[in-house]
């Protein structure tokens, strides 16, 4: 069992590790979050941060690398503002035509060379060395950086860190981590002792939110956790490299940030959306092209209000059901008592029963016509209503597949979301700042000024909400194992 880390109501300086989720264009919101973390004393305006260890995937890895070499929140925010991903990609007619040819050989349209070059220049400004390695960062600044990368050939997540890849240039690792499949070309590199050339892509494919990366012994620099001390013989390697063994001990000093748009599935999205200020501001200061294109987002607050009313009715329904339950099933008589219970407001009754008579309602519940209602049938009814199922609770909704774009998007989403179920657990809510980016999604790289300001405000408000809460899991989503 990993102990829970409910520290946000205490001294924020207990946090020493910062882990950032990937999110493409949504990463602009990190600027607002980082500025608020500076107010809390975790980051510094001069780049000498209280945080000692930084980690991330994709755009989170890019931001983490900048912080680790000494960039301030204001400086990082300016980088995010001025360098949307569209400025990192070549857009000439020749390059676009060439990309259609290259996509079959390098598995993506855009080269990541501009990213590597730009990041190298940023790193050089602070350290004097564009090809600063993980080991050199640790030696010169006493900072650790973990960059998450997906190794396609070996079908696994790789953790680039001073302990695992000391001599790899940071910008090369970040270049790999930010290579969104299809959008960017996969990176070919020979990093393994066997000399084989592997393909590397976006770390977010298998581990988009590596909140666990500083848990356990695997990336610990303590002498007792060195590979030599941990692995005594070859037969120990497989056992020690299992995910549960490498990252077993929960690290209460880790703080993470996740990014999700209103239209995207996200681990614990329903829980995060309950946090105060999460959905503020509701819109950008001016109607941008992107905002106008996303008509549904304008009505989201109304949709959320309707959903909350329905969920409230379902919660009362569950409570009354538990009181009447005398066995593993509910009899017809018990269901009738529930149906007539006076604790339902008229609004809740209308939302839940929709004008059905008792006989119609019972028939809807009793799917197999055996005269009783099983728990499975109760859940089926709840899912039919569209609220509070396990899937909804975790934030994973069904997606309609209508064309190639939605097919590919959902396929990638399935990989990312299922990796979240593997790598995350409910107690991680207690150490997670959650930024709802509203109408702005991962691939919305052409942002206007008002869009960027909206993202930064959302980031700041989400971070304030986290630290204002005595216990981040007070929304009821965190569970004891």
UniProtKB/TrEMBL annotation:
Top-level division of the source organism's lineage: Eukaryota
One of the GO BP terms on file: lipid catabolic process
Motif (GXGXXG): 22-27
Keywords attached to this entry: Calcium, Hydrolase, Lipid degradation, Lipid metabolism
Active site (record annotation): 58, 202
Domain PNPLA positions: 18-215
InterPro entries named in the record: Acyl_Trfase/lysoPLipase (IPR016035), EF-hand-dom_pair (IPR011992), EF_Hand_1_Ca_BS (IPR018247), EF_hand_dom (IPR002048), Lipid_Hydrolase (IPR052580), PNPLA_dom (IPR002641)
Residue ranges of the motif GXSXG: 56-60
Domain called EF-hand: residue spans: 353-388
Residue positions of motif DGA/G: 202-204
SUPFAM superfamilies the UniProt entry points to: EF-hand, FabD/lysophospholipase-like
GO molecular function: calcium ion binding; hydrolase activity
A Pfam entry, by short name: Patatin
Record PANTHER family: ANNEXIN (PTHR46394), PNPLA DOMAIN-CONTAINING PROTEIN (PTHR46394:SF1)
Protein name: Uncharacterized protein
Protein's organism: Patella caerulea
């Amino acid at each position: 069992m990993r102990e829970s880390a409910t520290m946000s109501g205490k001294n924020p300086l207990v946090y020493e590790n910062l882990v950032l989720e990937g999110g493409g264009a949504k990463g602009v919101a990190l600027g607002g979050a980082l500025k608020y973390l500076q107010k809390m004393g975790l980051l510094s305006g001069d780049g000498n941060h209280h945080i000692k260890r930084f980690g991330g995937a994709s755009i989170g890895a890019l931001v983490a690398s900048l912080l680790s070499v000494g960039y301030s929140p204001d400086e990082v925010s300016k980088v995010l503002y001025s360098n949307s991903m569209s400025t990192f990609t070549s857009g000439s007619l020749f390059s676009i035509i060439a990309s259609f040819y290259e996509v079959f050989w390098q598995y993506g349209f855009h080269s990541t060379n501009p990213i590597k070059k730009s990041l190298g220049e940023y790193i050089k400004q602070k350290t004097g060395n564009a090809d600063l390695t993980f080991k050199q960062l640790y030696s010169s600044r006493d900072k650790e950086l973990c960059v998450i990368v997906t190794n396609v050939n070996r079908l696994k997540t790789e953790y680039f860190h001073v302990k695992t890849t000391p001599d790899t240039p940071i910008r090369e690792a970040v270049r790999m981590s930010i290579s969104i499949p299809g959008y960017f070309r996969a990176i070919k590199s020979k990093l393994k002792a066997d000399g084989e050339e592997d393909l590397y892509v976006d770390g977010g494919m298998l581990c988009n939110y590596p909140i666990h990366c500083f848990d356990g012994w695997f990336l610990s620099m303590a002498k007792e956790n060195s590979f030599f001390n941990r692995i005594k013989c070859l037969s120990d390697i497989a056992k020690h490299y299992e995910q549960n063994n490498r990252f077993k001990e929960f690290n209460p000093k880790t703080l993470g940030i996740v990014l999700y748009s209103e239209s995207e599935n996200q681990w614990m999205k329903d829980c995060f959306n309950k946090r105060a200020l999460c959905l503020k501001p509701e819109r950008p200061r001016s109607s941008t092209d992107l905002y106008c294109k996303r008509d549904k987002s304008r009505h989201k607050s109304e949709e959320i209000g309707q959903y909350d009313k329905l969920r409230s009715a379902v919660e009362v329904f569950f409570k009354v059901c538990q009181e009447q339950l005398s066995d593993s099933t509910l009899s017809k008589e018990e269901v009738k008592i529930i149906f007539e219970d006076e604790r339902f407001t008229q609004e809740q009754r209308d939302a839940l029963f929709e004008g059905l008579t008792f006989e119609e309602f019972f028939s809807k519940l009793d799917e197999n016509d055996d005269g009783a209602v099983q728990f499975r049938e109760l859940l089926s009814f709840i899912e039919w209503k569209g609220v509070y199922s396990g899937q909804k609770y975790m934030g994973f909704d069904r997606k309609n597949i209508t064309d190639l774009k939605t097919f590919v998007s959902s396929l990638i989403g399935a990989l990312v979301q299922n990796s979240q179920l593997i790598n995350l657990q409910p107690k991680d809510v207690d150490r997670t700042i959650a930024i709802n980016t509203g109408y702005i999604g991962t691939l919305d790289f052409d942002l206007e000024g008002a869009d960027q300001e909206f993202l930064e405000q959302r980031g700041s408000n989400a971070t304030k909400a986290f630290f204002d809460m005595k216990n981040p899991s007070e929304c009821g989503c965190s569970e004891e194992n």
